Amino acid sequence: TVITSSALNKAKSSQEVFFEVDLPKTAFITNFSMSIEGQTYTGEVKEKEKAKKQYQKAVSTGQTAGLVKASGRKMEKFTVSVNIAANSNVTFILTHEELLQRKLGQYEIMTRVKPKQLVQHFEIVADIYEPQGIAFLEAYGTFISNELLPLVEKTVTDKKAHISFCPTLDQQRKCPGCDGTLIDGDFFIKYDVNRAEIIGDIQIVNGYFVHFFAPPDLPRVPKNVVFVIDRSGSMSGIKLEQTKQAMLTILNDLAEDDYFGIVLFDSSISTWKESLTKATKENVSEAQKFIQRIIDYGTTNINDAVMKAVDMIMKGKRDKNVPERSVSMVILMTDGMPNSGESSVPQIQENVLLAMGGNMTLFCLGFGDDVDYSFLDVMSRQNKGLARRIYEGSDATVQLQGFYEEVASPLLSEVDLRYPDNLVNSLTTSHYKQLFNGSEIVVAGRLTDYSLDNFLVEVFAQGVRNRQVTKDSSLTVTLRDSVRFVVILHKVWKQHPYHQDYLGFYTLDSHLLSPSVHGLLGQFYHGVQFEVRDMRPGEVPEKPDATMLVKGQELTVTRGWQRDFRWDVKNGENIPCWFIHSNGNGLIDGNHTDYIMSGLFMTV
């Protein structure tokens, strides 16, 4: 993002000119420069703590310096000022970069615009290029009225998008002839990309790679969740009411195959039910009535409350009352800190870490400015989760619901992305406890060979193993640590007159399946009786035709060769075979349309 601001001092004496910009907290400044009367001055970007010390020293000696400070929930403010001579101009240019994080199925680019005055030439221009293709895109501003809406122009093609917003001086005015500006708020661009590859998208540039992993069409995994709610005296009033309102909505969003529990705490602990309960409509309704009856009382006992939640989940697993293939999480909501009567902060963190033992995730929501946020943040990270500060305000309920939506639908657990040790180094985090619906895992690394344009990637997640080579992608699926299948995406030469990319299914352990197995492949696992006769020349000399007698049918078949990738995923083994025409009609049971599904991971 490049932000450019030009100003002219029309006064007869020198004046101080301020440049003030809000940028996302997740962004980092890569360049800042000022041009005064044709002379360019390039700033030196420093890490924040070093910059703060140098800023104070520079200001005390009269030098020009800028500093980034926190500004609200998601933004930081960069401010710099410079003295400009009469009738002189200055141009500020700030460049910042940011890794867009995919949340709830979309990327979001937010630009805060607060010029505080009419601007002679105002424009927002964005150009987006996505190699996978753009699935959808929307652009809007919190300050854009119906009159300004037509000025938001969008041009979207397959892989590119161009967005612009360029109001004239008069269109910026709050009213005809007045100096007040309508431009005051946030401009949003939200979009997502097409996701055809199960393994994700890998981009290689100048010896570095980035792997974007967000596989489409994965079924959600049932979850076991315990909500741990602070009802101590400090939560009284609006905070507790907003928590209760959010919980009513959150409980409604539970799926019927989820299991949940509720723990309330002040200086004592109480539960809705002693064990995890299936999220049926009746149980959810009963839990909502329980939530509405919560009243504030006493001080806090975070340690015992979280330990109670852990016990409920572990008991559900031991007694096999929850689905075997499920993920477990604890969501703690509090506005306080451990009381002096409790164990020390490090002791509580150690207790929780030992109790959870890597078997579940902890998410912490801290209300207001008085919460010991660092305590919650460390404890969450130790248990593969994250903490979020809930700001006091009228939208606290929405903040709570928004956070829950992000983590409500786990798709994979224990996601481990592996890359060849001899080809890749300087790797970012490549193991994640969970992948949630609508999110994305991003791994970056440096290649040892700058000329490399493809390499092997393996993804392991909850007993499912994926493997990719950039030309042909493969997925090895293991059922209950027994039967294995290899699914390979074969990419055909793009200029081939009729062949298209296709999926090849290869079975490694058909002997382990039961005699009653069926399906497009299953019907052949135990052998098929057939006879081939009347071999004759085909359309291609090296591929003769013949007649196959099978299942009481006479079928015309063609001799050919096909690669078997069961044991050599990269090269395959060339084997002779007979090709059946007409989508296998006469060979397969029923018609080929009987076996078509809307997605690879769909079930009947």
UniProtKB/TrEMBL annotation:
GO terms for cellular component: extracellular region. InterPro entries: ITI_HC_C, ITIH, VIT, VWF_A, vWFA_dom_sf. Keywords: Glycoprotein, Protease inhibitor, Proteoglycan, Secreted, Serine protease inhibitor, Signal. It comes from the Eukaryota. Residues 1-98 form the VIT domain. Transmembrane segments: none annotated. Belongs to the ITIH family. This is Inter-alpha-trypsin inhibitor heavy chain H3. It comes from Salmo trutta (Brown trout). The gene is LOC115150790.
